[in-house]
Amino acid sequence: MQRKNKTLGEFIIENQQEFQYSTGELSKLINAIRLAAKVVNHEVNKAGLVDILGAAGETNIQGESQQKLDVLANEKFKQTLQNREIVCGIASEEEDDFITINSQDEQHQNKYVVLIDPLDGSSNIDVNVSVGTIFSIYRRVTPIGSPVSLEDFLQPGVNQVAAGYIIYGTSTMLVYTTGHGVNGFTLNPAIGTFYLSHPNMQFPETGRIYSVNEGNYTHFPQGVKDYIKYCQKEEDDRPYTSRYIGSLVSDFHRNMIKGGIYIYPKSSTAFNGKLRLLYECNPMAYLAEQAGGRASDGYRRILEITPTELHQRVPFFCGSRKMVEKAESFMAQYA
Ligand SMILES: O=P(O)(O)OC[C@H]1O[C@](O)(COP(=O)(O)O)[C@@H](O)[C@@H]1O
Ligand SMILES: [Mg+2]
Ligand SMILES: [Mg+2]
């Protein structure tokens, strides 16, 4: 069991030994994400005082109006990773295409690519409800030294070497996995240091919370409608409690601690749902599985889906294993 209150920096170094042939590159990368998280946290905390609320006046490739904080968080993560030359490519919700990072040092070409959702829960920025950042890391598949290409990003989630999120909430936490369990670190804002506060996080096998935007109910597949009715029925340990923050990171975090399921299904208005496979569903699915939970599109394991586009969307069922299996059993009735 990990000793609580060790710093994230200590944890990263100690856990580097888990990787036999570690060069320290992944550790440097997690450290850079830690730094960018603190910079963005600082901006988020003073959002009401400076001119970073509201729309930036642009739309991203998904046709969504970009919030000023979406753009700012994107810039801060990009800059932090580019300046440290520790990745060979970045893909982001807020960038149409992937960005190639060429290392000045010709000899040392980097082997990792990062995919980010710089600001998750954008609709909650202006109303002071918790938001987050999501990241996913892969080893490139193209030869080191050759130009980075789309195939380095379009990898199935099972290939991830690390994934995590930062939640800017009542406290700021960084939660991540490198394939050896999930650990959560809380920022002590007084000294700007993340401390291990949630070692070895585990999804309870089942729970009593369901998170879905019921406002879209009429457009949902029959399997989802049936599952919602099941959650609301006066029977056994039900009805469950409905909780929906509208920030994936925050709904996921709560459900991982208390037990619960988050669903963003496809619907007659959103054919593949809303969430993006590469920088929302894959990283959260990797965390969920590493914490004993489950993540699917209602039928298939998310991590086994082979991506075809950078910004593709997939339906998302994620959380306590038994609850996701139950929801899938309803979906299977109409498959
Ligand atoms: O308002 P809706 O349609 O329920 O969507 C909420 C979902 O959309 C998201 O805000 C999408 O993420 P972004 O804010 O990064 O675009 C999720 O965090 C959240 O779970
Ligand atoms: Mg998001
Ligand atoms: Mg976002």
TrEMBL record:
Catalytic activity: beta-D-fructose 1,6-bisphosphate + H2O = beta-D-fructose 6-phosphate + phosphate
Keywords: Carbohydrate metabolism, Cytoplasm, Hydrolase, Magnesium, Metal-binding
Principal location class: cytoplasm
Cofactor binding description: Binds 2 magnesium ions per subunit.
Pathway(s) this gene product operates in, as recorded in its UniProt entry: Carbohydrate biosynthesis; Calvin cycle; Carbohydrate biosynthesis; gluconeogenesis
Gene Ontology biological-process entries: fructose 1,6-bisphosphate metabolic process; fructose 6-phosphate metabolic process; fructose metabolic process; gluconeogenesis; sucrose biosynthetic process
Domain Fructose-1-6-bisphosphatase class I N-terminal: 6-199
Cofactor(s) needed by this chain: Mg(2+)
A cellular-component GO term for this protein: cytosol
List of residues binding Mg(2+) 2: 117, 120, 280
Domain Fructose-1-6-bisphosphatase class 1 C-terminal intervals: 204-331
EC numbers on record: 3.1.3.11
Assembly mode: Homotetramer.
Protein name: Fructose-1,6-bisphosphatase class 1
